């Protein structure tokens, strides 16, 4: 009687396990890797996957996202092969981020579940190759910039002329380049003396849509009055407590400093205002190595 009961329980367990594996389990293959980069940097790299591909090769479609922690994407391999990837990004400890990729063959999922435990299918080979490409890309990208340790500091008080701009995070530097000439023309035509390094103050950051509004500024000595302009205005940047980090590298990817500051604040339970300020210490047209370009990056503490 006990043996029969045990057999029934075992058979039921096998049926339930197979039912879970084939019909409930939400992925066909799972890969985990680790990186020393902040979760936000990994997340931004994945959401910008197509930015690193040829312009005619939009291989990835982002289906849904939760900033810095979760991302669902579809990777088009061929006309009849579509791989779904659910990413889970989380801090493992102070120095390590764990990245989990849950991959599903959208068109042949049942077939993959049958074969994956026993064979290295083309799907598995593609999954391994894709994740190797992502991991190596993160390593290469990390060599393209440098970040200092985070410290508590004070945003310096400044007064400047500025233009209010908006863009995707990826396109911020292009918008600065596009409008720098307009600001400089206003400054030259009105004989205004620049008193420091150009800076950006983010006024709104939509994390979900990956877009920002920001003021692109050139600091000047305080004036009693200024010539009227439709698009150029005057502002005072007030001194305030902030987290600070030094960024070296191409200013196009200075947002890597932003993500590191956000991660530091979350890890250390510091209440911040997610509106970064960047002060650019170098002229990108000087011909110097990009790793010598420096920016002071701040994020205000509430």
From TrEMBL:
Keyword Magnesium: no
Domain AraC effector-binding: 148-302
TM stretches of this protein: 6-24
Entry keyword annotation includes Transmembrane helix: yes
Keyword annotations from UniProtKB, A to Z: Membrane, Transmembrane, Transmembrane helix
InterPro entries: AraC_E-bd, Reg_factor_effector_dom_sf
Name of this chain's protein: AraC effector-binding domain-containing protein
Organism of provenance: Confluentibacter flavum
